[in-house]
Amino acid sequence: MIISYSNNFVVIRPPKTGSTSLLHYFLNSGLLNGKKDKHTMDGKGDVHVAFSELLRKGLVDKNTPCVSTIRNPLHRLSSAYYFLKHMSIKTNFAFLAPTEYTNPNAYIDAIKEGKDVLGIKPIATPQCDYFPDHAELFNTENLHEHASKYILEKGGSVEGRIEMRKNLDNNLDVFLAEITPDRKQNILDTYAKDFVLWEKAYAVYN
């Protein structure tokens, strides 16, 4: 999360959308004032706080310009599945029921049921719940193009392409092949607004 009072914008970070890369585009842009502006680094607070929560706390105005990342919901769920599965094995969480990550279908069921296990709830939340309707959205595939245009137009600088935390374990083809048709349809229905917003952002550069 970034709140730039000096340049009047907010950066909102829905989880598993490439938002860590977006954060670093702005940290390296020269647009942030260390004395006036606020930002939260990973592991040091609620990096995925919603715009509505910032508004509730009086940190932003309802019309404050906002940018955020947006990702194809199917791709996002796949990336999160393999990331969380890897983390559950790596960290050996005793409280994490292994059935949630046995296969993509069990994972999708856990999301649908709103199970309170590691990483499920933030991913279950639609991306559109994180940012306001007036937000300018940067699709993950063209994050560099979107971020560069926005930053340069504000007088900032972009040193080069940034790709942070790229999930090498993600196997989208396998994930999509294993999901049953009814579960895939449920995803399409549940995240219908996210799909529309992603397609609109994607169309800018494709």
Sequence stretches where pLDDT stays below 50 over 5 or more residues: none
Q: State the helical fraction.
A: 40-55%
Largest sheet: 5 strands, mixed
The shape, in one word, is globular
Compute the CA-based radius of gyration: 17 Å
Alpha plus pi helix count? 9
Overall structural class, as computed from helix and strand content, comes to alpha/beta
Mean pLDDT: 89
Distance between the termini: 27 Å
Strand content: 5-15%
Please give the number of β-strands. Answer: 5
Q: Order of strands side by side in the largest beta sheet? A: 3-1-2-4-5
The helix/strand order is EEHEHEHHHEHHHH
Summarize the SSE layout with pairings.
Blueprint: E1 2-4, E2 9-12, H1 19-27, E3 38-39, H2 51-56, E4 66-70, H3 73-91, H4 104-113, H5 120-124, E5 136-139, H6 143-153, H7 172-178, H8 181-190, H9 192-203
Parallel strand pairs: 2-4, 4-5
Antiparallel strand pairs: 1-2, 1-3
Helix pairs in contact: 1-6
Explain the overall architecture.
By secondary structure, this protein is α/β, with parallel strands linked by helices. The chain contains nine helices and five strands, in the order E-E-H-E-H-E-H-H-H-E-H-H-H-H. Strands 3-1-2-4-5 form a five-stranded mixed β-sheet, with helices on both faces. Strand 1 (about 1-5) and strand 2 (about 10) form a beta hairpin.
